[in-house]
UniProtKB/TrEMBL annotation:
Family named by the database record: Belongs to the TRAP transporter small permease family.
Membrane topology summary: Multi-pass membrane protein
Alphabetized UniProt keyword annotations: Cell inner membrane, Cell membrane, Membrane, Transmembrane, Transmembrane helix, Transport
Lineage summary: Bacteria, Pseudomonadati, Pseudomonadota, Gammaproteobacteria, Alteromonadales
Matches recorded under InterPro entries: DctQ, TRAP_DctQ
Residue ranges of domain Tripartite ATP-independent periplasmic transporters DctQ component in the record: 28-154
TM region positions: 14-35, 50-68, 89-120, 132-154
Name by which UniProt lists this protein: TRAP transporter small permease protein
Assembly information from the UniProt record: The complex comprises the extracytoplasmic solute receptor protein and the two transmembrane proteins.
Length: 167
């Protein structure tokens, strides 16, 4: 197993646990919000902000994990009509485009946002935590998208052999 496969394997395990933990916390938080609002008639002040921040993290990290598992939405009707070699070329092109997006928007743009909010000292209104901690998920998810797209690019041959066996 090479270094790239080890990195992907480790990130998969960590990401699965982290996503399960965050989803559990999100369910508990929203349940507590509903209970305090409608049963205790005294809404909790922090639950809405916690739910919003957890949803941001789950969405971005979950998007990276969905990309890894090939569970993201895709329009592959045209690709299925292509020959194996052309389909492999399109697959590699998509990997490059995902890597470019991950680097330019998520990593560079995300790091700029984190730096700016840290520099300005922006705090969340209720929890009073630095917003840079919330926004750090942008470059983190960008790194995951980049890792997975590089992994897919270099394992495109194996990807298509596996798909042939399934069909």
């Amino acid at each position: 197993m090479n270094i790239l496969e080890q990195a992907v394997s480790k990130s998969d395990g960590i990401l699965r646990i982290l996503l399960a933990l965050m989803m559990t916390l999100l369910v508990i938080d929203v349940t507590w919000q509903v209970l305090t609002r409608f049963i205790l008639t005294q809404p909790s002040s922090f639950t809405e902000e916690v739910a919003r921040f957890l949803l941001i993290w789950v969405s971005l990290l979950g998007g990276a994990y969905a990309y890894r598992e090939h569970s993201h939405l895709g329009f592959d009707l045209l690709v299925r009509k292509l020959s194996q070699q052309k389909a492999r070329w399109v697959f590699k092109l998509c990997c490059v485009l995902v890597a470019v997006f991950a680097i330019s928007v998520l990593i560079i743009g995300g790091l700029n946002l984190v730096y700016l909010t840290w520099l300005l000292g922006q705090q969340s209104p209720v929890l009073d935590i630095p917003m840079a901690w919330v926004y750090i998920v942008l470059p983190l998810s960008g790194l995951l998208f980049l890792l997975y797209s590089v992994f897919f690019f270099f394992n495109a041959e194996q990807q298509f052999i596996t798909q042939e066996c399934i069909q």
